[in-house]
Amino acid sequence: MDKIKIRGGKQLNGKIYIGGAKNAALPLITATLLTEDEVILSNVPALSDVTFLNKLLIELGTQIEETIVQDGEYTSKTYTYQTKNFKSLTAPYDFVRKMRASYYVLGPMLARAHHAELSLPGGCAIGARPMDIHLNSLEMMGAQIEIKNGYVIADAPEGLKGAHIIFPKASVGATCNILMAATLAEGETVIENAAKEPEIGDLIDLLNDMGAQIEGRDRSVLTVHGVQKLHGATHSVLSDRIEAGSYAVAAAITKGCIELVHAKEEHLEVPLYILKKMGVQITPTENSVIVDARHADMQGVDIMTDYYPGFPTDLQAQFMALMTVTPGASMVSETIWENRFMHVPELMRMGANINVHGHASAIVRGVKKLSGAPVMATDLRASFALVLAGLVAEGETVVNRVYHLDRGYERLEEKLQSVGADIERVHEDD
Ligand code: UD1
């Protein structure tokens, strides 16, 4: 198993190219199941989650072609997807167990083939992660749903029907799944309290280009007029706001200056505002955001995670790493996931001063320095928080379980090396 070794203390300066968004790419890939035509997705990030979802689609009968695209210093992937016919309508346990987002195949399969079987995802490191909103909504659209042997078995022999649905929570996953299902349903579907994350807007753009009729992009009420068929389209994946936000923290924590090429300021308003409040200079340009902490007189700040456009839960761990070395007290409140402080004990092993209150809040008191240690985390963003801590810690930090990082950060060590970090990937037998 690979490890990441970091010798801390380097100021990071330069340019990092932000890739396509993981959380946009995953639903976009499953949306290709809605048509028998070719769908071309460009700017797809090189992530293990993408490779994994592609494997599931191949199981279902999709033909996939991959091209590597080099544009100056920026590398990305373009995939062509075509699902003429389904070979299988089952997403098996082994896939869903390893990647929850496999559940995005449910809506498209049920909509197009009127039947779908999906191993029910269990909880995961960050919380219970139920699917009730997805399933209740599909039932409201006329699907018959049965849970048997750990599988959701969904049938809609006559096809799905439009419905008026009010989500009890603005779930990202349910919004994507139900939007995809509704594109081919008969009549009109209205989703109230839909999630407004930019990745959903990206999905709506692709679906509308495929012939869907969705109104309300970026708003909490979405209206979908069902159509009989969708057709092929070409789409470029939105840039990853969470990757950009993570490297913004890398600039801040090392008191460096990084230009985040492709980052979109408008998708990072709250995290960038928090950085500014801490003392970091933020300068948006036409195609990038420059994060400059070289002269920052940093001070503690409070954050509370929330649905978009609030502070993203997926940046909570990274900001907490920054707070551990920022003078003064900072408070972190986590409102989305019930178990998202797994990085805390590991940061404390590196010398951080953090007091967790219950499951949802933590007080961080900035310390003068962290010291390197072998660490590991049980999820993707928590793992990146440990990399960040390693970048400023004295001595060597070894981050284990790199497969978490590979799920969501493409070429992480290369990108950090390019701005001056002393970081390398080592293979267990090296
Ligand atoms: C997505 C993101 C994840 C991010 C999260 C919140 C992907 C692949 N993952 O996850 O990185 O942390 O949004 O921004 O895009 N809930 C229910 N019932 C449901 C569905 C959700 O109660 O049927 C609850 C969850 O327990 C959670 C909240 O709703 O408390 C938000 O979850 P949701 O937005 O669905 O998260 P994901 O789509 O799983």
Question: What's this model, at a glance?
Answer:
The chain is an alpha/beta fold. About 30% of the residues lie in helices and about 25% in strands.
Q: Which structural class fits the helix and strand makeup?
A: alpha/beta
The order of strands across the largest sheet is: 22-23-1-24
CATH topology of the largest domain: UDP-n-acetylglucosamine1-carboxyvinyl-transferase, Chain
The distinct bound ligands, ions and cofactors come out as:
uridine-diphosphate-N-acetylglucosamine
**Mean pLDDT across all residues, rounded?**
96
Number of strands: 24
CATH architecture of the largest domain: Alpha-beta prism
Helix content: 25-40%
User: According to CATH, what is the class of the largest domain?
Assistant: Alpha Beta
Helical run tally? 14
Query: Runs with pLDDT <50, length 5+?
Result: none
* Biggest sheet features: 4 strands, mixed
Quaternary: single chain
Termini gap: 11 Å
Evaluate the radius of gyration: 22 Å
Spell out the CATH superfamily of the largest domain: Enolpyruvate transferase domain
User: What share of residues are in beta strands?
Assistant: 25-35%
What's the domain count?
A: 2
Spatial shape: globular
Keywords:
430 residues, alpha/beta, UDP-n-acetylglucosamine1-carboxyvinyl-transferase, Chain, 2 domains, four-stranded mixed β-sheet, binds uridine-diphosphate-N-acetylglucosamine
